[in-house]
Amino acid sequence: MTDIREKTFVILPAGSGALYEGLRSLWSETFGDAPEYVDAFYENFGDDIKGYVMVDEEGEVCSALSCHLCGEYEGRPVYVSYAVCTREDMRGQGLAAELISAVRDEVTEAGGISVVSPAESSLVQYYAKQNYEPHFLAIQRAVMSPDFDEEEFDDFDEFDLDIEGADPTPFRASIDLEPLSPEKYNKYREAFLSGRPHIEPSAAMLRLMESETMDGCGLCSINKGDAICAISDADPARVILTELILNPVLEELSMGIDAEIAAMIAKHFDAAETVYVTPGPGGCQGMACGLQSKNETLPADEEMNEVYIEEPYYGFPIQ
To answer: Structural domain of residue 162, as residue ranges?
Structure first.
């Protein structure tokens, strides 16, 4: 219970009935998602999601969030506080901060890890005040569709890929997108991200990723496993990849292969550009509470390839 401006607010679980309906309505009004989407979101996560609301003395929902099990990090459950929202006429009074803190404490006191994903750059500092630290870092880039020159990749023929589960065929200058099952996608993802701070997605999280991609077939391998990606949208303007993860052997070559792959994906879909997120220091993709700091440092300003743009789509610079 909290008292703000002589009004009493109570935090309650919103699993069903009027409280859930209030959460769903506020989510829809704030983010523009249809109520049916909110219902589908909850149905997807089932027992792994809980809704929380802050209500006033009249029982009206003033602030809400949904907390779902995203996966595991180093064997510990990771819960994401998602769709945090406050009624427009009640904003600026600290209600959401109070709600976020209460759910955070519930998760961490039970031994879990509480995570938030900033939807805009200003929220990085906002969540920092709630004891969240940037932990899962990513670089946001965009690349235009090129006239691709295969001769640039002739030198890659001598490299064999030695990641377990990956096809040993050397990298080729072509894009062969093949749909992956969520299970196989996670297998590649875990192999490629070994040694990096990352969350292993739960089965429910993978279902959501698959269902939100194009026709449910957006979890793809590239060149029979040289890289993997999640295609969230594609149209004549741009292809949006929520992930682009390379085999570490390719990454170590340090020749902008991620940009070349992204450019070829744009070309494959006859789109003007590809916007993509790839793991690495540079922006804040997720903030965590309940973890010891990995002491990750952000690189000094680097000279970016001219095909990149710096306007972020998903990962945000840490101020």
So the answer is: 138-289
Work out how many domains the chain is built from and give that number: 2
Q: Tens of pLDDT along 5-49?
A: 567 899 999 988 999 999 999 999 999 999 999 999 999 999 999
Amino acid at 101: S
- Cβ partners under 8 Å of residue 167, min gap 6: 161, 223, 224, 225, 226
Do 231 and 271 reside in the same domain of the chain? Answer: yes
Residues 277, 242 contacting (CB under 8 angstroms): yes
Contact 115, 81 (CB under 8 A): yes
Domain-embedded: residue 150: yes
CA distances from 2 to 93, 100, 177, 210, 257 (A): 11, 13, 52, 40, 52
**Which tens digit of pLDDT belongs to each residue from 249-284?**
887 766 678 888 898 899 888 899 999 888 776 666
For residue 273, what is the domain's CATH number?
3.40.630
Question: Of 75, 68, 53, nearest to 9 (Cα)?
Answer: 53
CATH label of the domain that carries residue 84 = 3.40.630.30
- Could you give the CA distance from residue 116 to residue 124 in angstroms, rounded to a whole number? 9
Stated pTM of the model: 0.77
The amino acid sitting at 184 is K
Our CA angle for 181, 187, 189, nearest 5°, is 100
Query: How many whole angstroms separate alpha carbon 302 and alpha carbon 308?
Result: 12
List b or e across 99-123, with b for residues whose CB sees 16 or more CB atoms inside 10 angstroms: bbbebbebbbeeebbbbbbbeeeeb
Q: How far is CA 111 from CA 17, 106, 207, 293, in A?
A: 30, 9, 25, 16
